[in-house]
Amino acid sequence: xxxxxxxxxxxxxxxxxxxxxxxxxxxxxxxxxxxxxxxxxxxxxxxxxxxxxxxxxxxxxxxxxxxxxxxxxxxxxxxxxxxxxxxxxxxxxxxxxxxxxxxxxxxxx
Length: 109
Description:
This protein is an all-alpha fold.
């Protein structure tokens, strides 16, 4: 066995430096792998969501959903008519209030 006191100091430092370098390399490799995985996870999630969206769009374009498009169009027309009716009702309410006020003024005179 070698006596530790007889080994030159620069050899001990070189061995320690070699161990530290090995630790740094392993640590940096692990960090690089983890960072790569973390960076790739959003892309894989986005890719899966795009595939799911593509599949849903192909299902929606199936002919059995043609009636659905027609009903959506009719619903849009009914909503427009309902909005117009609400506007007419609102204008009638304001006109009737003005008319009632005018009748009150006339009858009071």
